[in-house]
Fold these 3 entries.
Entry 1:
Amino acid sequence: MSKFLSYEDRLIISQRIQENASFGAIAKELGKDRTTIAKEIRKYSYDKKSGRPGYPYNPCKYRNSCKAKKICGANGCTHQSAYKCSLCSECTFHCPDFEEDICSVKRKPPYVCNGCRALPRCTLLKRIYDPADAHEMAHKTISESRTGILSNESDIARINKLITPLVKNGQSLHQIYTEHVDELMCSEKTLYNYVDAQLFEIRNIDLPRKVKYRPRYKQPEFKVDRGCRLGRSYSDFQKFLEK
């Protein structure tokens, strides 16, 4: 079985998201780990600025009650929404009272708007998972290096913000991983590796159980000093015969 998701797998993920299935249920159906599904959705989804029929994209918190007019100062505005600036897609660029309304759906699993019932009538910034776009983006990243830390700085900062206060409060990494597996989007082993690499504010000394473990014995590698080969190559041998 391939460790990479196929296009058919991504079609199933998209369909199950619309059915509001959990990461665990999707992972069980595809034979993958739930963190794989969470990473797939968070990594390959994208923001989409769109409104609804008759209403443009408008993420303002006061869009439903706003009655402001001619905020942009264009007295000769020819927009059909000139009588009410909240119906104009450009009102947020000029209004001094603009406050962005961020939907809470994107803050919790599945982190996208695909299965939201309010999607057809929503005018906020949307987070969309499209299987075709996701497959294309994933295909471009397959050829990248697989060595070193695979998370970017924003992912490290997000995980650090989540686990650091919990560890300092006395919780173990295992307990944190069990309760926040969908938010962490990485394996438990990866968390320990990141702590070893000192990528978080916490250190191994903050993990009472881990400091009791003895470091694993690693057999030393035998390396040949290349300096011993100087003057002993085949070309050097031929030169010796010519003398």
Note: DSSP finds nine helices and two strands in the chain.
Entry 2:
Amino acid sequence: MVRWDAEKYKLYIKQWIDFCCERQADPYNPPLTTVLVNLHERGLSNTTINTARSAISAITLSEDKNTIGCHPLVSRFIKGINKGSPPTPRYLSTWNVQLVLTYLASINPLDKLDLKMLVMLIAPVSAQRGQSLHILDIGPGCMKKVPDGHKFLLTAHIKQSRPGYKTPTVVLRAYPANPSLCVCTCSNEYLKRTKPLRGAETKLCFTKPYKRVSRETLSRWIRTVLTSAGVDTTIFKPHSTRAAAILRAKASSVPIQEILKTAGR
């Protein structure tokens, strides 16, 4: 498996191996019934079951030497789950982006520049997933300053990556009307202040003890700022910045093609 798949499936593979060990089954060449029992007993959501199936398929083969996730019985099992419990959206509504912008403006991120605030600005402006925010790179060929902002080329594998798919460019547009809320002004100031400390590190998100920030830390920071801004984080998770930004853009009559181009599919 490539590293991205290994990271994504690590938890599911560990749980699968533990499950097989309890039943004295070979986790790499298991009976089909073991796979179905494992998926059924865990009570996972539809999306999580599909991820678990992919994780199991990545390390096992069925008796006919095909991936076990493609076995007709497994496919029928997944379809049955989807029919019995149709997938529903996580949120029926979302929070108002203006809440966060008002909060950030009140503390003036440029004067009290904090990476948490910068990340919180980038998240709704770019409407990207946390994974994409985490891999933003300022290295040669990755970041380009243009007249109206910054462009980032995503060079790492992302969720949408697939054969024939062109990875979108993340664009951060300047907002000269209010420098304290301008993601480009804030990022320029942040890069200026961290330049003496970076060494060879090129990831945008970089903090003490002077190393790149983990994806989990980015999510925690976004949650912290959302809470401070008055957003109910018991309901809305850090990933909700994406939905909130897209809905705000749609409400502002931004063309749907522009939204898709900016946020990625």
Note: Strands lie at 143-146, 149-153, 169-173, 206-207, 211-212.
Entry 3:
Amino acid sequence: MLSQLRWLFIPALALQATALSLKGPKFAVTSAKASIVRAEPIDLDAPLTTVNVGKTENLRVSFTVLGDDGNPVRPHQAFLRMVDEKSGEEGIQPVKVGKDGKGKVEISVSRPPVSLPPTSENPLSVSLILGSFTHSPRTVPLFNLRLPPSAPVTPHAQEKHYAPQPLIAHKFNPEPSQPPKVVSATFAVIALAPWLVLAGLLSQISTPLDISSKALSYTGPFLSLLVALEGLLFVYWVKLRLFQVLTYGLVLAVLATGAGKRALVWKSTATK
């Protein structure tokens, strides 16, 4: 609970906090053999100077962070921001600051860090960003940095496959039209015709039908499975797919065959 309240008080403390300051900021340009090419202190009140660094040279920036009482302070975050004002390319390099407030960052041009943005003929504006929970954040402009232009990027052989492609215009088939009601009714009558024929033939049988419970125990399952097959065709017309109908129809056909054979065996024995 106390840790949560602490975060609530941070914005209020930041309003009353004082800004951090820098002591003795300086830069140095060194050669590949570690000899000093140029080393100067950074005057924060003067116009920004331009620092030129060659292909085989290194840049080192050092400073000390002070609090409002003049004592060294270790900020919670420190970054070196390098931005090309014309192209908008930007890079952020974290800076490690010790407990004594001293920070140092070194950039090798021959082995540039991933944070270094692409360079051109335009210089990079370099500034130091400091952040702290107990002090107001501060951005300190340091100098303009001129580096050798970056090598042009060689297009990848597969680059064209990942570039924006022309818009695909999908063409959908029109909705299938429904047949006339007369045609639908005609085929419905054709589908029901076997049942009409069966009903007509049953009326021509002179022997009365045996509707006893024993007879229905043999003929009932067979007739029920026939009705189920007809119902399956109706459901297929409504929502089922062909593979589903074939699966269910195979099961019902096997059961109907067994039930029909059982009914015929009973009928043959009952008439003897």
Note: The beta strands are 21-30, 36-41, 50-52, 58-66, 77-83, 90-94, 96-97, 102-108, 124-131, 138-146.
